[in-house]
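Example record

The entry below shows one chain as it appears in the dataset: sequence first, then C-alpha cells.
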Amino acid sequence: MRTERKKRPSDASRLDALESRLDAIEARLVGDDATARERRRTAIGVDVDLLERLAARDADGEIGGAILYAGAVRVGTRRYAWHREHAARDLIEGIDPEALAPALFALANPVRLRIVLTLARGARTGAEITETADAGSTGQLYHHLGELLRAGVLAQPRRGVYEIATPALVPVLAMAAAALDLRAP
C-alpha cells in the first residue's frame, strides 16, 4: 500500500499567507489613531495627548514646552488639590533666583523637611513636633519653624500650633517627588 504525501503549498503561497497574517497583526496593533494613542498611553502610563499639548506650547520660539504639576491629597478629613502649568520659557528666562531661594532653602534642610512631613499629617504643637520630627532643641525647632513660616510653607492657625499652609502641601510634595526623580538612575 502506498501512502499519500501531503502536498506542500508552494513557497510563494506560503509567503502570501505569512504576509496576510502579518498585515492582520499590524492592523490589530496599530488600529486607528485614537486606539493607537490609547495603547501608547496605557503602555507607558502617560497621557500622550497631554504631553503633546505641553510640547506644542510656544513651539515657534527657541524655548518651547511647558511644565505641569498637579496633585490631589487627602489627609484625614482635609483635602488638598493643586494644578499649575508654567511655560518652559518663563521658567528658564523669567525666574528670579532671589525669589525662589527662600522656599528652596527652607525645604533643603533635612530637619525642616522632617517637620514639614510631620505636619503633612495634620497640625501639631511645637512640643508634638519636637517629639515626632527629631527637630533638636526648642531653640533649634523655633528657628526651623521661623524659616518655614517665612517661606510660606507653614501657617500658624493659633499660638503654638503649626500646620502646612493650605496652598503649600501639593507643591511641597511635588518638589519632594521631583527630588526623588532627580536621584533616580
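Notes for this example: The longest helix spans residues 11-30. The chain has a mean pLDDT of 82.
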